[in-house]
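FAQ
Q: What does a multi-component entry look like?
A: The components come first, one per line:
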Amino acid sequence: MNFDLRLPIGIMFSLFGAIIAVFGLATGGSDIYATHSLGMNINLIWGAVLLVFGVFMLFLALRGKNSGPPPK
Amino acid sequence: MQQIHLGGIDYAILLIYFGFVIGIGWVLKRYMKGSTDFFLSGRSIPAWVTGLAFLSANLGAQEVIGMAASGAKYGIMTSHFYWVGAIPAMVFLAIFMMPFYYGSKARSVPEYLKLRFDEKTRGFNAISFAVMTVFSSGISMHALARLLQTLLNWNYNFSIAISAIIVLVYIFLGGLTSAIYNEVLQFFMIVLGFAPLVFLALKDVGGWSALKEKLIPVATEQHFAAGTWSQSWTHMNSAMENPMGIGWFGMVMGLGFVLSFGYWCTDFLVVQRAMAANSMSAARRTPLIAAIPKMLFPALVILPGMIAIAMHHSSANHFLPVGADGSPDYNMTIPTMLAKYFPTGLLGIGFTALMASFMSGMAGNVTAFNTVWTYDIYQSYLAPNKSDTHYLWMGRMATVFGIIISIGCAYLASKFNNIMDMLQLVFGFVNAPLFATFLLGMFWRRATGHGAFFGLLGGTVGAAIFHGLAISEGATPGIKGGWLAQKFLFHSEMGQNFWMAIVAWTTCFALTILISLATARTKTDAELKGLVYSLTPKPETAHEPWYKQPVTVGILVLIATLALNIIFW
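Then the predicted structure of the entire assembly, as tokens:
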């Protein structure tokens, strides 16, 4: 099966990460952070984490493509 | 009642997730050329994928919600479900049993029983498993719909329809591969969705030491020793010393041995994922790869529960919603924590992770059902010798009617509260003796088909009889037990169930041996090659690097688990 699962995983989490990080930037001073996540802009923080994870997965997937089929 | 409010961005995240889930199924459709592709992924999946899918298929929302609830209700003793009740069995499966499952070329667990024993043993297992797995799927559906109704006011029927349709579509299209790929996606969603919850909650409560302090009044107010919620073994000398109502022996033998091995080593739902691996080595590594995150899951699911109960006790107004008698509604632990700590945005991720965990459980049940139905019931008894294309078609049809039956079970569960308890019970009756059958089958060539079948039957009946004679404190006779007489009194239902498992296993074990010795063997040594330990050449692993050697990794996993047990003693 030629379908590398890391590709959709990478895309999805990069997308999620970008969406909530941008949302976090946009809602920077909002009181939702005071009432929920102990005052931290958790959307920005965790969005960045998800984005890094997604990009890392994409990196693994694309590097895998370039180096040919994995040894059995 | 706790309500969660989802914003536009949260719904967007949910929709994107469903898009990916169905999209993956869509892309995989073209690879589904024959029944082996559909039911067994053509045995072509790499170990890291099967490993994470193995874990994720087991990880239904009952676990995410249930373990947090147990963490609140019982404290860190809940970790036994992982460090005693899962890891050892997973290691055993990897090292000792996968060679037979994978090497025998059996396409399912019941098929292994047919190859090793006879048709009637296969039939008993296939039918009981098929019924229970489709019931489980239905109950997951019901639990999800109920939760969505409570939290978001979504229409119950709508939730059932949506979850059924999504799972149906992606499995219909891509079969087991679709289920497996989505399970891996769900694994990452769950880890990345709940990790921030643990991080925030732990920070809020003041860290681990502060948590231990805060858990002292939780224990003392219920007349237990101060450290009961934060020490996993110290208060297990007798059933009266801890809120689970179980002593260490009953727990180790009932949960750690019988129920744990009975589930992890014989339940086709998880074994199917290992069978889809691309080599024997990958198949053996699958449960081990799963065991590593499994070891760490208590931090993800149990810890929030412990933090929730600590906060519930130390706050003036109730943190968790309470029932009529003032006791906390433990099942609302995760939703309450999500609502408290996650702002819109991250809430979408957390909520989607929760949905993902329900759906991974459902999909796992459906793929196990459609395989067992098609190979072990339809092909074996109803329509043998048809073309492979015909069985592929049947597999797709089985997916459809499997989901329809699940929906029926979901509605049954919504009408009769006891259905869930009944299912747990039947699971216990059937699963507990099963491991004895497999153990004897795989390691004792003298075990015969009659021995296996009647041993299994006897063990199941024995479990039912024990259940009829046992009851736990405060329970009414009936579905909770004691419907024959009340001869055995237990401190808790959990203790009662663990002991029932021990009785069932022992009965099956003894009966199988006795009947096997009294009946003639029907299979020669040559026929049993690849199915029995003493008649199978050991898999060759010396050429693999150390981290790919099942025995080495297995030992390391066990050492790490032992260390965890000691740290949290």
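Q: Is there any commentary attached?
A: Sometimes. For this entry: Chain A touches chain B through 32 residues (CB under 8 Å).
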